[in-house]
Amino acid sequence: MPSDHPVPIVLDCDPGHDDALALLLAHADPAVDLRAVTVVHGNQTVDKCLRNALAVCTLAGITDVPVARGADAPLTRPLRLAPDIHGETGLDGPELPEPVLDPAPGHAVDLLARTLRDSDEPVTVVATGALTNVALLLRAEPALRERMAGVVWMGGSTGRGNITPYAEANAANDPEAAQEVLDSGVPFTMVGLDTTHQALVTRDVVDRLEAMGTTVARTCAGLMTFFADTYREAFGMPDPPLHDPVAVARVLDPTLVPTVRAHLVVETEGRWTAGATVVDLDGYTGRAPNADVAQGLDRDRFLDRLLAAVASYR
Predict the structure, then answer these.
(1) Tens digit of pLDDT for each residue in 12-43?
(2) Which residue numbers are catalytic?
(3) Domains in the chain: how many in total?
(4) Whole-number mean pLDDT of the chain?
């Protein structure tokens, strides 16, 4: 059952349209306590993603959460961006306010480490981009894995990919980092495409956002309209899937996103399959489960929770 005690979390993200809504959900929902936001390369350059995170915080009046710039490239691979999906800014569509907040000093790894140390209880890292920052943290201070309640990652897939035939973008952007985090022993939850593709932003969802009449809700509606246009062009999908807030939802209320235990590895060597997340749902390998893997979404309750969060802003 969901806990009555707010779960302390850090959001590690690469805003990104769906990351923006994940940030709004994580700050507004009373089931979690958002302690920090860290930014990584991915949907755009880390500098553009940092600006987007600060702009979303400015838009929503989020002034009590530090935001830090993280890794600007994968551990070993060339940088890969997604302007075809998220635009040249990473948050194309409606105009966002000029950020009035300054980023936290130092690297995202420093903010992550400080947040973990200062917390009176273990902190969950909700990661909605490549896992480079988390891998760098565990390299720098492996003892801090004891201060992590777990990593809940929007990434991967139990089936097909969305950037290569078998790799989802967050996994493909830094497969080595994802495997390092898996190998660290930190409790790991994968919320993959097969689940997030159930979180479709249909026209009625945009209508509900527009009907709220607030600046934040109108901006979200505009972001989702842009996102729908690029998804339609890139994938032929009439409605875009709202990937990243589903990872936050798993922490808000685990019954929204049920999981199964399975052995998970991230392919790092395949010529055609690098970044593929190999999920042994049927026990073929005989290896012990090392991850919780999302296997569904209560879409109606998820959307109600997300829209209630957006409605709480002006």
Answers:
(1) 999 999 999 999 999 999 999 999 999 999 99
(2) 243
(3) 1
(4) 97
Gap between the terminal Cα atoms of the chain:
31
Contacts of 266 (CB under 8 A, 6+ apart): 156, 171, 175, 178, 179, 182, 275, 276, 277, 278
For residue 122, give every residue at least 6 positions away whose Cβ sits within 8 Å of its Cβ, in sequence order, or none.
8, 116, 146, 147, 148, 149
Put simply, whether the predicted model's pTM sits higher than 0.70 gets the answer yes
* Domain assignment of residue 1, yes or no: no
CA 237 centroid distance within chain: 21
- Parent domain of 85: 7-311
Q: 110 CB contacts (<8 Å, ≥6 apart)?
A: 68
Cα angle 260, 261, 267 (rounded to 5 degrees) comes to 110
Which of these, 261, 211, 200, 222, lies nearest to 17 by C-alpha position? 222
Q: Is residue 260 part of a domain?
A: yes
Confidence label for 230 from pLDDT (cuts 50, 70 and 90): very high
